[in-house]
């Protein structure tokens, strides 16, 4: 993509990503941003629509049933109570699969997310495995990331969820992990917003530098583990990339079919996620992830640009909920207001300030992308 001069206030003519949202954004001569251009380039690689998607999904379902024959379950699904994972639960049952739902309880579930999980799995008759993280150990790790002063505050949870899913797949002899990730509504990638989902070297290094104790029970994995699991034939399948996934329609269906309830924002089923995205990121780092979330919906035709521009002007965090969450988070962490505000005043840093395996991770991503292009790795 050709770089062109842009004004300090420039916004993409197609989505709502802007210089304010992403200081490293680039625009072409038509005023279209690099995020939209990346979406256009990767969409054919990541998403199959219409009949092509249906045919590929039929082949995938047949393979899952074949590999799972004679076992208690033929696939795993992660379940959080959010719209994507709940819709995946409905979809796999509709396809005649026999999933085991896996949930990681990190101590931050909202009451609504717990209720959504319960009603979903009961009505769909899906078994649940829950792994409860050691709170004192996990609390110490989350505080380490606060002390590190990077925006990657969700990384410990994301890493643990992936580790638990792959370990459970290996334990049950399951070859397919059905993911709720979907490119249509999760395509915006700004590395400085969050890094390290796969990078155990980075996570371990942050804890070693800022933590009070080593991580003994925290579920984790290395790049070598990922390679080994893949060599054993375990695959993570983004099944929503095989269907015409429309998030607003999915939410309406879940409400009607299951009595599922919306929780107010992307990934807001977690209290700490809501606190991070609604307060810490915008106030300390100047990051408002809603720009990416809404731009994804625009690109996928699920929201108009005009509606997104209106929504982005609304408060990200209702004052009453913020006040309640603020007190809850500080009490759960055992922090005084002064101690927490000291974290907020620290100069922002990035993963580049700490030991990491970024170069290796880039190599892994490129390899997976090549395998996708050649048809050897699922969408």
Spatial order of strands in the largest sheet: 3-2-1-4-5
The CATH architecture assignment turns out to be 3-Layer(aba) Sandwich
Low-confidence stretches: none
By CATH, the topology is Rossmann fold
Report how far apart the termini are. 24 Å
Structural class: alpha/beta
Fraction of residues in β-strands: 5-15%
The percentage helix is 40-55%
Domain tally: 1
SSE string, helices as H and strands as E: HHEHEHEHHEHHEHHHHHHH
Q: Provide mean pLDDT, rounded.
A: 92
**Main sheet overview:** 5 strands, parallel
Would you give an account of this structure?
The chain has a single domain (48-286, 318-373), classed as 3-Layer(aba) Sandwich (Rossmann fold). 51% of the residues lie in helices and 7% in strands. The protein has helices at residues 34-46, 50-68, 83-94, 111-124, 135-148, 155-172, 200-210, 223-231, 247-258, 271-285, 290-299, 305-311, 319-333, 337-345, 358-373; strands at residues 75-78, 99-105, 127-132, 176-179, 235-238. Strand 1 (75-78), helix 3 and strand 2 form a beta-alpha-beta unit. Helix 3 (83-94) crosses helix 9 (247-258). The protein is globular, with a radius of gyration of 21 Å. The chain starts with 33 loop residues before the first helix and ends in a 6-residue tail after the last helix.
């Amino acid at each position: 993509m050709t770089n062109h001069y842009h004004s300090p206030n420039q916004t993409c003519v197609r989505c709502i990503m802007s210089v304010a949202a992403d200081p490293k954004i680039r625009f072409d001569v038509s005023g279209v941003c690099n995020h939209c251009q990346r979406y256009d380039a990767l969409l054919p690689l990541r998403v199959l629509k219409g009949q092509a998607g249906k045919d590929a999904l039929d082949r995938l379902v047949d393979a899952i049933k074949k590999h799972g024959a004679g076992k208690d379950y033929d696939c795993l699904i992660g379940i959080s109570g959010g719209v994507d994972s709940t819709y995946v639960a409905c979809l796999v049952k509709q396809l005649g699969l026999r999933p085991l739902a896996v949930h990681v309880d990190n101590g931050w579930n909202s009451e609504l997310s717990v209720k959504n999980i319960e009603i979903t799995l009961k009505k769909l008759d899906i078994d649940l495995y829950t792994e409860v993280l050691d709170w004192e150990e996990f609390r110490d790790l989350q505080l380490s990331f606060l002390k590190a002063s990077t925006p990657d505050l969700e990384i410990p949870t994301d890493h643990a969820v992936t580790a638990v899913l792959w370990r459970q797949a290996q334990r049950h002899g399951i070859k397919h992990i059905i993911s709720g990730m979907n490119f249509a509504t999760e395509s915006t990638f700004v590395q400085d917003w969050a890094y390290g989902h796969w990078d155990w070297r980075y996570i371990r290094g942050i804890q070693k530098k800022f933590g009070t104790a080593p991580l003994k029970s925290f579920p984790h994995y290395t790049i070598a583990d990922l390679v080994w699991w893949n060599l054993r034939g375990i695959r993570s399948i983004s099944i929503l990339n095989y269907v015409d996934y429309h998030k607003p329609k999915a939410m309406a269906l879940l409400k009607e079919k299951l009595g599922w309830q919306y929780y107010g924002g992307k990934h807001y089923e977690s209290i700490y996620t809501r606190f991070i995205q609604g307060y810490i990121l915008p106030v300390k780092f100047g990051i408002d992830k809603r720009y990416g979330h809404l731009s994804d919906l625009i690109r996928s035709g699920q929201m108009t640009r005009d509606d997104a521009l209106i929504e982005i002007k609304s408060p990200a965090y209702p004052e009453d909920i913020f006040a309640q969450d603020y007190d809850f988070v500080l009490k759960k962490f055992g922090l005084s207001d002064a101690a927490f505000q000291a974290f907020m005043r620290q100069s922002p840093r990035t993963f580049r300030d700490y030991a990491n395996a970024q170069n290796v991770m880039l190599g892994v991503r490129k390899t997976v992308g090549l395998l996708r292009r050649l048809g050897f790795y699922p969408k």
